[in-house]
TrEMBL record:
This is histidine kinase. Residues 291-335 form the PAS domain. Residues 424-636 form the Histidine kinase domain. SMART domains: HATPase_c, HisKA, PAS. The keyword Kinase applies. It comes from Flexilinea flocculi.
């Protein structure tokens, strides 16, 4: 074609070149916004030469005087007033059709009688432009194709005079879940029974040419024509057209339509490939984000400049900052170390290069937003995105709980050792203490009570008694506890216990309260061991009052935990001074006591007794009162 492309900034020329070439009258495509002619055919070139022998002006305003008067309707006819080189005006009747939804590109065809041709050879301009608009709409996206392709084929059959038109897809449409849809449309066509044979034969055909099917499939009707579409990498499919017998004039229209389809099918495949790739990337990114946000480790990624580009939710919670507060900031603003993160990373990789074995994780102490210090296991990785961009990935694990468990294990091991040592020591001490008591009794028998030697011996006897009591407690704590279990009525048990404490309560000016419920279920317990627990709690409360008087209250009730199984809740409370805050967390440990003359074994042994009964004991204390709560399992069915 001899038409020249003036501006190629709007759309690839293939479709419009084909469209203009199919017309027998002067035609050109122009842009309202740019005021320039984009494409034109040979007839238009001759038409412009007749108006401007020395060359048409590039300014659109100097070519058509009334171009701004065009109608806004999609297709309309009007008279264009063309300027001629001598300054005169030549009115020419034209037909304008918008080619895009933005109403910018317009196809103008001259229909002046001077340029009229035999109607038999005249290409139906309005049909071509309508098909062009319909194809553009249907091939915008996969969704538009699904909704409009079948109707588009019907429209072409009705308006073009073609008996049938169908599209035989290649396997590439299976990737986009369109193959079955197109196959269903073909099942309604007359050529469907031959579709497998045609598909096999089209593999040998050249693309972009309109051919007769009978040339390679002799049993096919002579009115069947085929047009194969292929891009640079794959076969797209083939159009099969059934023309009316003896209708050779419609082939030019068919060729134009197929070349339009050729361009748009390639564009649609490219769009769907890009969309699929985009969705895959979005899915993978979303999946990766979900995985990273839901792992138990913290992840922080920094770029070449050590600026934070990503931080997951675990890291945010770990440090106490929202992602938006730290992204874009220097990593040193978040991870504060003595040497700085850059030096830490440099040292990490230099050390790693000198190690033959696998990398070992490092535990460091970092700071939360609140100022709290926490131990963190840190692993550092490098990721090179391309030649210019590399990223450093920090994988963080808050090991606060692990460290606490480790310290507790060490403490338990130490206590176990101390317990064994204390038990051994207690055995070694007991015999000498017993011997001392025998000699002290002998000394006292030889002295008068007013004698200083007698008094000194008595003080030694008290100290020996304290040592003996301490040894007894140590041995009781270190030996396995043997319980003699029997049914225990808690109400009666506690009433009897309080009865024995009455004299002490009166002497110390202490009031006590206990109102047991009726028919309270029984528990399985060792009465002597439980008596030791409650005697210890009541005795501690009396000591805490320091002869100033007070109130002790006992209460029993039923407790139903979520895990199932009813339990008896026994609370022992007093209105004394309470337990110091620095001691409350260690109150059940050996040697921990707030009493002046206490040895710190009473509550430790009490807890051991309660836990041996498959129960639990806890304490709540505040200035002005302390409450011990004991949970013991109730007999099943009681």
């Amino acid at each position: 074609m001899s038409g020249k492309l003036i501006d190629n900034s709007f759309i690839t020329s293939n479709v419009y070149d084909t469209f203009l070439f199919s017309l027998a009258t002067p035609a050109f495509i122009w842009s309202i916004n740019c005021k320039k002619i984009q494409y034109f055919n040979e007839q238009a070139e001759r038409f412009f030469e007749s108006l401007w022998p020395s060359g048409k002006p590039s300014e659109f305003d100097r070519l058509i005087r009334n171009w701004k008067d065009i109608s806004y309707s999609e297709h309309h006819t009007m008279w264009f007033e063309f300027f001629q080189q001598d300054g005169s005006i030549k009115p020419v009747q034209v037909r304008n059709s918008y080619l895009d939804q933005k109403r910018d590109l317009i196809a103008t065809v001259v229909i002046n009688p001077t340029w009229a041709v035999d109607q038999q050879n005249h290409q139906p301009m309005s049909f071509i432009t309508r098909i062009l608009g319909s194809v553009s709409s249907v091939f915008c996206s996969r969704t538009d194709f699904i909704e409009g392709f079948e109707n588009l084929l019907d429209e072409i059959e009705i308006e073009s005079g073609i008996s049938e038109i169908g599209f035989i897809p290649s396997d590439c449409f299976k990737r986009f879940d369109l193959y079955e849809m197109i196959h269903r449309i073909n099942s309604q066509k007359s050529f469907f029974v031959y579709i497998d044979q045609i598909t096999n034969e089209t593999k040998k055909l050249e693309s972009g040419k309109l051919l007769y099917v009978v040339d390679f499939l002799p049993e096919a009707p002579e009115t069947w024509m085929i047009y194969k579409i292929k891009d640079e990498t794959q076969e797209i499919g083939s159009f099969l057209i059934v023309i009316r017998p003896g209708d050779s004039q419609s082939q030019q229209i068919i060729q134009t339509i197929l070349e339009i389809f050729n361009f748009h099918f390639k564009e649609l495949i490219e769009k769907m490939e890009m969309t699929k790739s985009l969705y895959q990337n979005v899915f993978e990114n979303s999946l990766n984000s979900i995985i990273v946000d839901n792992i138990s480790e913290g992840v922080i990624i920094v770029n070449n400049d050590f600026l934070i580009v990503y931080i997951n939710q675990i890291s945010s919670k770990m440090f106490g900052f929202c992602p938006k507060d730290v992204i874009g900031h220097d990593i040193d603003d978040l991870i504060v170390t003595r040497e700085g993160v850059r030096e830490m990373v440099s040292h990490h990789f230099s050390t790693e290069e000198n190690q033959d074995d696998d990398e070992t994780d490092t535990i460091r102490y970092f700071h939360r937003r609140s100022g709290e210090t926490f131990p963190c296991q840190i692993e550092i990785k490098k990721f090179d995105f391309d030649e210019k961009n590399s990223y450093t990935i920090f994988i963080l694990t808050d090991v606060t709980e692990t460290e606490e468990n480790r310290m507790k294990s060490e403490q338990l091991a130490q206590r176990a050792f101390l317990g064994d040592f204390a038990s051994l020591l207690a055995h070694e001490i007991r015999n000498p203490v017993n011997n001392m008591n025998v000699w002290i009794q002998n000394i006292k028998s030889l002295c008068h009570e007013d004698d200083e030697i007698y008094k000194a011996a008595h003080r030694i006897e008290d100290d020996c008694s304290r040592v003996s009591h301490l040894v007894t407690n140590i041995l009781a704590y270190s030996k396995p506890l043997k319980l003699n279990l029997e049914e225990v009525d808690l109400a009666s048990f506690l009433l009897d216990l309080l009865e024995r404490w009455k004299i002490n309560f009166v002497r110390s000016n202490i009031k006590y309260y206990f109102s047991p419920p009726d028919n309270f279920p029984k528990i399985m317990g060792d009465p002597r061991a439980l008596e030791q627990v409650f005697n210890n709690l009541i005795g501690n409360a009396i000591d805490a009052f320091d002869n100033k008087g007070g109130v002790i209250s006992l209460k029993i009730s039923l407790y139903q935990p979520e895990t199932g199984g009813r339990k008896a809740l026994i609370s022992v409370s007093d209105n004394g001074p309470g337990i110091p805050d620095d001691m409350i967390d260690h109150i059940f440990e050996p040697f921990v006591t707030s009493k002046k003359k206490g040895n710190g074994w009473g509550l430790a042994i009490s807890k051991r007794i309660v836990t041996s009964h498959k129960g639990s004991i806890q304490v709540k204390s505040y200035p002005g009162g302390t409450v011990f709560e004991i949970l013991l399992p109730i007999i099943n069915g009681a």
